[in-house]
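Repro:
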Amino acid sequence: MSAQEHAAPAGDDGPSGRVVLVTGGNRGIGLACARRFLALGDRVAATYRGSPPPVDGLPADQAARLLPVRCDVTRPDQVDAAFDEIEAAFGRVEVLVANAGITRDTLLLRMDERAWQDVLDTNLTGAYRVVRRALGPMVRARRGRVVLMSSVVGMLGSAGQVNYAAAKAGMIGLARSLAREVGSRGITVNVVAPGIVETDMIAVLGDARVEQLRSMVPLGRAASAGEVAGAVAFLASDDAAYITGTVLAVDGGLAMGL
């Protein structure tokens, strides 16, 4: 019996919790998601390209359920290898959070092909790769949760981020089309669209720009990464079993009505 066949029966109801994969799970929103699922009792694989997710402060039982996996989502061979590693250790992926993303911000007139392609290949095509690899076992099991990490930028637009906005808007089309394809198999596909979040990615904009953005938010503050992780965990929960194809904005009201 293979490791996958042995581990899979634990499933959603098993004593070891679900098998969750968070791409880009070593920092920011991805790390917050990984830690939220660990706290819920799940087994979590977190991909990274640079440094692995830190285990500082994690209880011993949670650290034991965390599997760091090196994976560049722009490399199909690395995506396949990552899933092989996860399936050997835990079994099939039951919850996928496609979070890996980068920025290469500049005005379109200054944006070269590389800056465009890098962002699209990581943020959108990378999501396609991991979703496609996770989907087969989900379809066979007739259950699964897919959550794609978009952004309010994909709905509002943002000067200097046409590549990022295009990728994040594409995530919504991907999710809604896929939700129609696999809904009959008991698989939900949803999108979380964060607004301004207190992470390293927003910090590089500088205090003045961050304050300008914060002033546009009806709630008057940035979100914490943990608040975004809470929305992701909800969409992966039994309470969200009848929610699919939706975009859940976690933005303090920034993009309300869109």
